[in-house]
Design a protein that fits this description.
Elements: E1 5-7, E2 10-12, H1 14-23, H2 36-43, E3 52-62, E4 65-80, E5 89-96, E6 101-111, E7 117-127, E8 140-146, E9 157-163, E10 169-177, E11 184-186
Antiparallel strand pairs: 1-2, 3-4, 4-5, 5-6, 6-7, 7-8, 8-9, 9-10, 10-11
Length: about 190
């Protein structure tokens, strides 16, 4: 049995680290533009007046870009320009009141490290005031699900970044959503 490796405060299996490094180099995660709306959602995580499909759900996303809330939470869809590209997209939202994290999921565009534009699944976690992780409101993380061949990777995987309340990336790499905490585990990181 392989011994776990401590990397940046995270314990990861040596095999997982080797796979992650073979798929992408440090800092090669796809970049998703973090718009000014994101910080605002951290300060006011509820639905707008025009939100639809309001209800309650326990999870949001698809495949590797899925997160389960700590308990069933408020769910809605809303037309929001979350990446400040001038295009209003249909976004799904799930409010985890216990963690004080607003999760959002959408199909949208992102930029590969090589500059190529691609499209796919994007899951984002936005911290609200008083969150259990102790993060500033408006900061958060995102996960992009890549298919084999997208962004030059050999095998499908999930990659993403953490960002501060100003939308600046703080660490990026191969990632996974922690099923117990709803947080992002970064396997390979670079500022």
């Amino acid at each position: 049995m392989k011994k776990p490796l401590l990397l940046g405060g995270l314990i990861v299996g040596v095999g997982l680290l080797a796979v992650a490094q073979s798929q992408t180099t440090i800092g090669d995660a796809p970049k998703v533009k973090i718009g000014s709306t994101v910080a605002g959602k951290g300060n006011s995580p509820g639905p707008s007046m025009t939100a639809t499909n309001k209800g309650e759900k326990s999870s949001i996303g698809k495949g590797g870009t899925t997160v389960k809330a700590s308990a069933p939470g408020s769910y809605w869809t809303d037309m929001v320009d979350i990446d400040d590209d001038g295009i209003v997209e249909d976004n799904q939202f799930l409010w985890d009141a216990q963690r004080r994290v607003l999760y959002t999921y959408r199909q949208d565009d992102f930029t590969c490290a090589n500059g190529k534009a691609e499209s796919g699944s994007i899951l984002m976690g936005i911290y609200a005031m008083g969150n259990k992780a102790g993060k500033p409101a408006g900061s958060g993380w995102y996960v992009v699900g890549l298919n084999a061949g997208q962004c030059g990777i050999a095998a499908a995987g999930t990659f993403g970044c953490r960002f501060d309340a100003s939308g600046n990336y703080t660490e990026c790499g191969a990632v996974a959503v922690n099923k117990k905490t709803g947080e992002l585990d970064v396997v390979v990181a670079k500022k």
